[in-house]
Design brief:
alpha+beta, two-stranded antiparallel ribbon, 4 helices, 6 strands, elongated
């Protein structure tokens, strides 16, 4: 009978890990004033009629802390890449020199930093909601197992384990947010 309970707890843990992974990926897209190739991770280029990730049509690198360089593998892709970066609405201004595209990352204003912190906080809150939803689903599954004959003590213990997991993951989210907040506010 406890295999079902262990499975419920393991499934909850995997879902919570998924929430953390999603949060970390979301926070990578929030720029903190430093150039990062992942800032262009959501850019899709029209490559011969199909939407293709930028990383599959060009080399993206960071020559210094304030610059992103995009070197297309095919010269005729410069215009479509430049257009795709503008369409992505990242607040970046690409310039091309015929060979590659240079993107200067402007320093963040205090107001913009506060907006980015709010955005990061919102992502963290969404992740916490996700964790709490996993807890609710797991507890509902445990209650079903109790109705199916699993002892009350085992179910109570399982609910406690789920709560400890939830607390640990919420704490982890707070730590991840604190690191991102410090990164954004650092001038």
């Amino acid at each position: 009978m406890t295999e079902e309970i262990d499975l419920i707890i393991e499934t909850a843990r995997e879902s919570m890990n998924g929430s953390i992974a999603h949060l970390e990926k979301s926070l990578l897209n929030i720029r903190a004033g430093k150039a990062n190739p992942q800032m262009l991770g959501g850019v899709f280029v029209d490559y011969y009629g199909s939407q293709t990730p930028l990383s599959q049509v060009a080399n993206v690198n960071v020559p210094d802390a304030r610059t992103i360089s995009v070197t297309p593998w095919e010269k005729n892709m410069i215009q479509p890449i430049e257009k795709a970066i503008l369409i992505a609405n990242l607040g970046l201004n690409p310039m091309n020199n015929g060979e590659n595209i240079i993107i200067n990352i402007p320093p963040l204003t205090e107001e913009r930093r506060k907006e980015l912190v709010k955005q990061a906080k919102s992502e963290a809150e969404d992740a916490k909601i996700g964790i709490r939803n996993v807890r609710k689903d797991a507890n509902n599954d445990i209650k079903k197992e109790e109705k199916n004959g699993v002892s009350e003590d085992i179910c109570k213990d399982a609910e406690d384990r789920i709560q400890k997991l939830t607390d640990n993951y919420i704490k982890k989210i707070d730590e991840i947010f604190a690191v991102k907040e410090a990164e954004i506010l650092k001038v």
